[in-house]
Design brief:
GROEL, domain 2; GROEL, domain 1; Cpn60/GroEL; ATP-binding; GroEL; alpha+beta; 4 domains; 6-stranded mixed β-sheet; globular; GroEL-like_apical_dom_sf; 3-stranded mixed β-sheet
């Protein structure tokens, strides 16, 4: 405890009363009064105009990046400017001066963030789609439509559109589809598409991909020992990368136990040791609560500790087995409470080591130290033997899952670039490509180019960014069949078929884009048309004949025409 690096509960912030008493002793107690500015309240047309202005400003900045010929955006940040092509990164960087306009921008920012959190890609399309829905919705409300009726109708319609797209999606077929999806998501970068396809080929469709910076100019793919854990950080206060909301550790010490940690005294010796070693500490426990969690969080925020924790995955006896697997990967000793291995008695030798730890909100990726390879292979052989001997279907499934996690390893894409700006841009593109590819593998693919959306705004903007008249392209898309649209790279309409052009888009992203727009929907526009019929208090009819763009003509369209009215929704 005499060490200069010692950690104790005394490192918590002093109570306010102690600080006040000290100031009183040193002299006269000073008081400061801070008054907030008065709130500006707006109603009706003024508020709607301000909201729409904010929506337009943010969506315009994000929308210029859409499509294969979209532009980049330069963000003026501390240090060198950042050149990005990622919708959610741009959206998060924009704050408007006017509070009411900023509220409108926040709507689009939320759509982009939700889409990114759920699907990992498709954020620009979601932003453009939300902007168009809001614009037409506000126009309808200004014309006298009942916003509640419109909102209820669109909620029901969104579900119908998602179901239709799900029915039309097809599974990914081999490396060609994977390469095409990854390349398109990375801004039509064939090199990134090939790299993602190579990485998935090495670790399999259920494998794990990790992205990190390279020490050279080259971008390479290596397969290393490691695994993914289906648990995220216990507290968001552990986050080290605020932009991505993740925890990133290198050469971390790992403590693994099935015990609940409630008192800081239980882990105080280990905290002191890792602080002396200047190594991050990654804790896996049944749970961390009360004083222990509060002390870890406070000391982490004050920069005294570099620590993060997750709850142990799985349940019951299977939890012990999974924790033993993790212990093998990291070279740690599993501190099991039924064996009397208490956390407060843990030593440095019982800690494991991970070359890299990445903790997301719901998952954690471990990349093991190279010395663990032989132990991992021995563990896999043991599990395969157990798999061959079991008669239980459930045990067979769980053993196969554990074997896949251990044997698959982690494909590490080491990104190289000549400058920091280029490196950040390439990492963002590879991250988008990775997320889109796994979404496609899991859920299937549909035609890209914005042709599968109820609103044709994405397809129109893709054409506009390519220097082509968007409305002309939209009309040609509407006259075409389901798998035909506009390819902005070749500037040739009607060449978008899945088997013809290779222009494909993950169905899961379509689903998330549609679902993310739902919370801000007040009206729907389909085929660039929304018609108001009857009096202001009457029913609003919204033509959704092109619920799936390129639906094949008027005869096929009548099946999805509908009315929105009061409580009835879509009829």
């Amino acid at each position: 405890m005499a060490s200069a690096n010692a950690i104790s509960t005394a490192s918590l912030l002093r109570p306010l009363s102690q600080g006040r008493a000290r100031r009183a002793r040193n002299g006269r107690l000073q008081r400061f009064v801070v008054r907030a500015d008065a709130k500006d309240i707006a109603f009706d047309q003024k508020s709607r105009a301000a909201l729409q202005a904010g929506v337009e400003k943010l969506a315009n900045a994000v929308g210029v990046t859409l499509g294969p010929r979209g532009r980049n955006v330069v963000l003026d940040e501390y240090g060198s400017p950042k050149v990005v092509n990622d919708g959610v990164t741009i959206a998060r960087a924009i704050e408007l001066y006017d509070p009411m306009e900023n509220a409108g921008a926040a709507l689009i920012r939320e759509v982009a963030s939700k889409t990114n959190d759920s699907a990992g890609d498709g954020t620009t399309t979601a932003s453009v789609l939300a902007r168009e829905i809001i614009k037409l919705g506000l126009l309808s409300v200004t014309s006298g439509a009942n916003p509640v009726s419109l909102k209820k109708g669109i909620d029901k319609t969104v579900q119908g559109l998602i179901q239709e797209l799900e029915n039309r999606a097809r599974p990914v077929k081999g490396g060609g589809d994977i390469k095409a999806v990854a390349a398109i998501s990375a801004g039509n970068d064939e090199f990134i598409g090939s790299m993602i396809a190579e990485a998935i080929d090495k670790v399999g469709p259920d494998g794990v991909l990790s992205i990190e910076s390279s020490s050279s100019f080259e971008t390479t793919v290596d397969v290393e020992e490691g695994m993914e854990i289906d648990r995220g950080y216990i507290s968001p206060q552990f986050v080290t990368n605020l932009e991505k909301s993740i925890v990133e550790f290198e050469n971390a010490k790992v403590l693994i136990t099935d015990q609940k940690i409630t008192s800081i005294k239980e882990i105080l010796p280990i905290l002191e040791k890792t602080t002396q070693l200047r190594a991050p500490l990654f804790i896996i426990a049944e749970d961390i609560t009360g004083e222990a969690l509060a002390t870890l969080v406070v000391n982490k925020l004050r920069g005294i500790l570099n620590v993060a924790a997750i709850k142990a995955p799985s349940f019951g006896e299977r939890r012990k087995a999974v924790l033993q697997d993790i212990a093998i990967v990291t070279g740690a000793e599993f501190l099991a409470k039924d064996l009397g291995l208490l956390v407060e008695n843990a030593t440095e030798e019982q800690l494991g080591t991970a070359r890299k730890v990445t903790i997301h909100q719901t998952t954690t990726t471990l990349i093991a130290d190279a010395a663990s390879k032989d132990e991992i292979q021995a563990r896999v052989a043991q599990l395969k033997k157990e798999l061959a001997e079991t008669d239980s279907i459930y045990d067979t499934e769980k053993l196969a899952e554990r074997i896949a996690k251990l044997a698959g390893g982690v494909a590490v894409i080491k990104v190289g670039a000549a400058t920091e700006t280029e490196l950040e841009d390439r990492q963002l593109r590879i991250e988008d490509a990775k997320n889109a590819t796994f979404a496609a593998i899991e859920e299937g693919i549909v035609p890209g180019g914005g042709t599968a959306y109820a609103l044709v705004a994405p397809a129109s903007l893709i054409a506009h960014n390519a220097g082509v008249e968007g409305e002309v392209v939209v009309e040609k898309v509407k006259e075409s069949e389901w798998e035909v649209g506009y390819n902005a790279m070749t500037d040739k309409p009607r060449t978008l078929g899945l088997e013809v052009s290779g222009l494909q888009w993950p169905w899961a992203l379509e689903e998330e884009v549609g679902g993310s727009g739902g919370p801000v929907v007040v009206a729907v526009r389909s085929a660039a048309e929304a018609r108001q019929r009857g009096s202001a208090a009457g029913r609003a009819r919204l033509d959704i004949r092109w619920a799936v763009a390129g639906g094949g003509g008027e005869e096929k369209a009548t099946a999805v025409d509908g009315w929105y009215s009061g409580e009835s929704g879509l009829r």
